[in-house]
Write a structure and sequence with these properties.
With 170 residues, this protein is mainly alpha-helical. It has helices spanning 4-12, 18-39, 48-61, 66-85, 114-127, 130-142, 146-150, and strands spanning 157-158, 163-164.
Length: 170
């Protein structure tokens, strides 16, 4: 795509770092190569249908993570905006709604041993921060969420019976 080199100046004016621009241009070059291979024509503009076909190709054959695909989508969106700003194209064909949902990985309690919990609690107790130690003991023994533990009031505790009321918005 002949507009590719002049798009780096456009991207620089948007406040994006040079390394990010290099990654974006690389992504657009990969799209252009795929387009030429797939349609046996040079890519002159961006169409939604063909961009979605490219994303489907990436998801299926490249086995890329959603985070990587989102970076590629971001690259193509920025390039599409450049094409519109420079008059090569009339509309933006990709947007934020095309991003993939990325589930953050969290520590699973099933991966934490009882000895690790005990060691953590001992380290917290040694640190002298009794508030945090009490919260950690409460959560470790009840399975409470941090937000539930932080919202506890003294009236929610029944120390004689050894139970408590958990108030939650979830």
């Amino acid at each position: 795509m002949k507009e590719l080199t002049s798009s780096s100046d456009f991207l620089l004016n948007t406040g994006i770092s040079e390394n990010t621009i290099k990654a974006y241009l690389h992504d657009v070059e990969r799209y252009s190569e795929w387009y030429l291979h797939e349609y046996e024509l040079p890519c002159t503009d961006l169409s939604r249908e063909r961009l979605l076909a490219y994303l489907e190709y990436l998801e299926g054959s490249k086995a890329l993570s959603p985070k990587t695909i989102n970076r590629i989508i971001s690259s193509l969106i920025k390039y599409n905006k450049y094409l519109v700003a420079s008059g090569v194209q009339t509309s933006v064909v990709l947007n934020r709604n095309d991003y993939h949902k990325c589930q953050p990985t969290h520590a699973s309690l099933t991966n934490i041993t009882e000895n690790e919990i005990i060691q953590l609690l001992l380290d917290m107790k040694k640190s002298g921060n009794l508030r945090n130690y009490a919260l950690a003991v409460l959560m470790a023994n009840t399975g409470m969420r941090i937000s539930e533990a932080l919202n506890m009031k003294m009236a929610d505790l029944n120390l004689n019976e050894g139970n408590c009321v958990i108030r939650s918005n979830k």
